[in-house]
């Protein structure tokens, strides 16, 4: 454990000095405001205290990492019927591409592209009012992380909404195929709020523990999902969790992970730990540049890759 | 080990009685001749004797599984410069799609789609005559499997050649972008022969041992690749090894694997074993139907999924 | 003139007895209600009285033919600056395809695909309230046809709105590129109303006279557009006026024309006449089956093809 | 006629001084050698002597204009059965795109995209040896132009062959769908030679006279095609004759035309004349920049647009 702590500190220190930190997302003003110097790491072992370095206790916008939580929630609600609405294959196009959606008759490729996540949120909405669905998602994330201090950044949610035409197009498009069933504005009202959830690296790492521990959160003892479902969610993260950079992430890091344009990445080390990193500068595929590098270095030193 | 042998036998027995065995590939006559009743399983533990069931010692056409061997060979020859010629991302389209190739200026998505494998073969050709390159590939496969009895099925190779227009189109197309550099007919002459290599499940399982054992073949003691490269090849198999069914294979089986339209699948269990299955009937994505089912059941019983 | 009248009657009679009348559009309930037996023809010579046959004085939903009127109106408002917002090339895809729109960064291929027509309507909206823009379009159509009895079918407009997700997707998508500038719901509010304009074949034929007469309506004496602009609008109808069937229409009929899914087609015979046909049954490309056949026969007998 | 001669000279003079002459095609060395200063115009009225200006009697590579001749030849051989092999719709993609070909199962969009022209050449080959087919095409062009001095530029043909991977890819691709039936190398052997036919503006203008004169060559009195077929070929030139710039050419010039990357354009004025222009500099769509401008100016002054 002391060795792990040392590695985390070394990696944080080494990467902090890098000149090229990537490019902070600027498609919404609220994200563009974040300093590219922020950099946090948290590692939550399945059987030990959380190890942190840097800005690991500062909140940031989890953005697409929220798709992992809503996927888990929707699977809990309707089980494998979810796969009638969304597929499980990696997407060969950019994360918000509408082309592939048309080729496949409105069925999104996987729950981690925007279209797929919107379809999942439509499932969670399930006849409720948007406000209730937002509340349910937030409560679920607090339950997973075992931390009631987690909240939604309303300014980010509003900013998303004001720049949400591409996602509105996706929602209307899927509605025309019957894949999205609630009014597009309601579904996106929920979706923009889930993306605006703010969490720290520490909270994120804790929230993913059930995936590293066969479905059971070791901190709380709650069985969140079955061992089989935990494996399957990890598999989806491996093949689809990094937009059009999933192949590269698997190649370099070798762990299931889910990234967000806020600069966070959540990675699962089955049976061992959860790693959460945050650095707002992104690479060309929209994934955290330093965050990916940190995970690559940590996986290398610990030998945690699932691939041997 | 006795438990593993029992599981393999049970799974073979249970699946043998299934009515739906999928559809045997018929795009070349030589493949269409194979009986859909053939079904073999071989498991090669990293530290123990091979376990088999059914037709595990009957040769079949390995087809696209050969792409795994040529990838390894080409990486040995030019290392990471290979990634200038071919990408590492899963493909959202069918395995022989030319559309994506055009969108990406002739650079194939990964070494396991046909275009990517042809580009890899072009690297191996490397100025030699086709005959020499074919010989080199065959010798490498024999070396990996530690079995000099492995050969090429000339009838299959000729049949491929006679129905090779789609692959010829891919080769010429990449040549127009400078990604393929030798004459198209020469590159495909080699490619069709590598696809026509005939192996048994036992031989296949043995040939993959280096990937399950950090790059070193435990049967021969030879270091084939570095531990890091072994991990990376496994990662590529996980994200790209099953055409447009890679996401589903990871979801259901949870192991790196490479399939071929001859009905074979090679799956790696890091640090533990290699599994080779063969059943010629294919599913809609072109992967062995019973073979995938067998791997899913075996991974379930053994707990061998890399995802927890 | 008597000869022309006879031809029109003969063609109407001959086609009326055809068993295969095509398939009435059913994507909105209000269109699906129309009988497939309806069939009208009107020919308006530039220098003589209108000739009609069949249901030429019964109103029908002009649908996409309205795109011709809004294009003319928008060109009158902002001139050639319109071409910064929409291109002038035929589309190789179906009329409501979003794929091509993504490939071309949100700039529609031409003003007659749905996306292009929505962009044109956004121009006409020009800061006004939707109600005012709808009024302006209606007044313009009445002016062109020289008939104040023309109206909008409110039930059709509401039905379009209720099934408008695909068009909403297009509008939001173009908004994300800045090609559409008003709120999507406002633009489509106008668009759905323009498509719901109801006209008779006689009114349609009269409304197109300015295009057959170098920009000047011979019935009213008003110069609607310059001779050059009239030619150019005719050219656009020739290359883009029939969705993915423009090539076939030019090949068979040889006249500039614009069709609508309501079953109407407006065709221009430069310097000679305007032809309007209506038969609700559509062919596979979404163009009136009998209407196209009638135009082909009439162009053949009159020698009116522009191609010799 | 004197007026026409004056206009032709004025336009030639005015455009000759333009600084921006476009970019000479450089995809094969033989084309890249041609001076961008070359500029010729020839107008062949259906009932009068040919009028010329500039380099109208200098030979150049007709390239894709040859597709017009092979289309006419193939229609003469198998009639409307040709449309089972190739469609008649404008293409929304670049002239040598393979994407659309895949979406449409190997059937080319029209006879003027490369794929379509290759399929037409496959028809002409019709079991003969390539040499014979080349001879037949050349004799047909000489017959059309009424000039036995027309020849093939062997250096250009060889240069095309040496850089023909993209077209080889198209041929193999169509062969995989059964649309092309002869060996790809044979079909392209013919195709590269037809593209390498060298003609002057005068010869080109004469060769198109049958299309301006209801199928009958007024110079020789031969009926080349029926009036209906002449109209239809003109229609195809209008909607598909300028690659992805067909809409713009119709919009600006208003005449059926076929361009080639050698810088030539052949335009038909039904019942009046044929215009041939040549200037090697191309615009972004691959059509002659000055040539298109000359046609636009001439159509404007003469009022020859078919659109009014």
Automatic annotation (TrEMBL), chains A, B, C, D:
InterPro entries: Beta-lactam/transpept-like, Glutaminase. Keywords: Acetylation, Hydrolase. It comes from the Bacteria. This is Glutaminase. PANTHER family: GLUTAMINASE. Its EC number is 3.5.1.2. Homotetramer. It holds the Pfam family Glutaminase. It is an enzyme of class 3 (hydrolase). Substrate binds at residues 64, 114, 160, 167, 191, 243, 261. The keyword tRNA processing does not apply. One of its GO terms (molecular function) is glutaminase activity. Belongs to the glutaminase family. It comes from Rariglobus hedericola. GO terms for biological process: glutamate biosynthetic process; L-glutamine catabolic process. The keyword Disulfide bond does not apply. It catalyses: L-glutamine + H2O = L-glutamate + NH4(+).
């Amino acid at each position: 454990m002391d060795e792990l702590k040392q590695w985390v500190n070394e990696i944080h220190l080494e990467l902090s000095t890098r000149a090229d930190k990537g490019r902070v997302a600027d498609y919404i003003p609220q994200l563009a405001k974040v300093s590219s110097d922020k950099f946090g790491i948290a590692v939550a072992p399945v059987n030990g205290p959380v190890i942190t370095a840097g800005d690991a206790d500062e909140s940031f916008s989890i953005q697409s990492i929220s798709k992992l939580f809503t996927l888990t929630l929707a699977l809990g609600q309707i089980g494998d019927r979810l796969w009638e609405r969304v597929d499980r294959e990696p997407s060969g196009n950019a994360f918000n591409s509408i082309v592939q959606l048309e080729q496949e008759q409105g069925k999104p490729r996987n729950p981690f592209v925007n279209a797929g996540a919107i379809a999942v949120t439509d499932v969670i909405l399930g006849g409720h009012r948007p406000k209730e669905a937002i509340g349910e998602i937030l409560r679920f994330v607090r339950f997973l992380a075992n931390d009631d201090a987690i909240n939604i950044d309303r300014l980010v949610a509003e900013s998303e909404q004001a720049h949400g035409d591409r996602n509105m197009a996706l929602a209307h498009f899927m509605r025309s195929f019957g894949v999205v069933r609630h009014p597009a504005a309601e579904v996106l009202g929920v979706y923009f709020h889930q993306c605006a959830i703010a969490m720290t690296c520490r909270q994120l790492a804790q929230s993913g523990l059930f995936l590293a521990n066969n479905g059971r959160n070791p901190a709380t003892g709650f069985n969140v999902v079955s061992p089989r479902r935990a494996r399957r969610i990890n598999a989806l993260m491996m093949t689809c969790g990094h937009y059009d950079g999933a192949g590269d992430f698997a190649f370099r890091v070798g762990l299931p992970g889910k990234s967000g344009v806020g600069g966070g990445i959540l990675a699962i080390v089955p049976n061992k730990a959860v790693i959460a990193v945050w650095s707002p500068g992104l690479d060309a595929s929209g994934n955290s540049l330093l965050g990916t590098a940190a995970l690559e270095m940590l996986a290398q030193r610990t030998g945690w890759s699932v691939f041997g």
